Amino acid sequence: MTLERITHVWLALVVLPVLCTVAMAQGEAARTSPSELLGNAGLFDGKTITISGTMLNLREGVSAAGKGYYTFDLSDGTETVHVFSFGKARCKAGRATLDGTFERVRQQITATRVRCR
Fold first, then answer.
1. Domains in the chain and their CATH numbers?
2. Read out DSSP for 19-39?
């Protein structure tokens, strides 16, 4: 193996994954699925994510302070993650894509935007 070939292999195996991690840490929302999210919970903890799946078990409520909120489960058919968001649910069921922050301890996403699909 030539020195040039070793350099290319090293770049592919070491430098590129580091650059991808840095890009994710710089505020880019990582696109993921419930299965990938829960399978790598430590990687996504506290990170902004974009995730898609099917809404299940929608529940709406009002806090003691009078602020509306809703929760639901988001599934990809294999894994399910719990979602919380303030406001009134625009989607009632079916496919949805959302942006939010994942909390590993609660195994929950706090959504900032939910889009019906």
1. 29-116 (2.40.50.140)
2. HHHHHHHTTPPEEE-HHHHHH
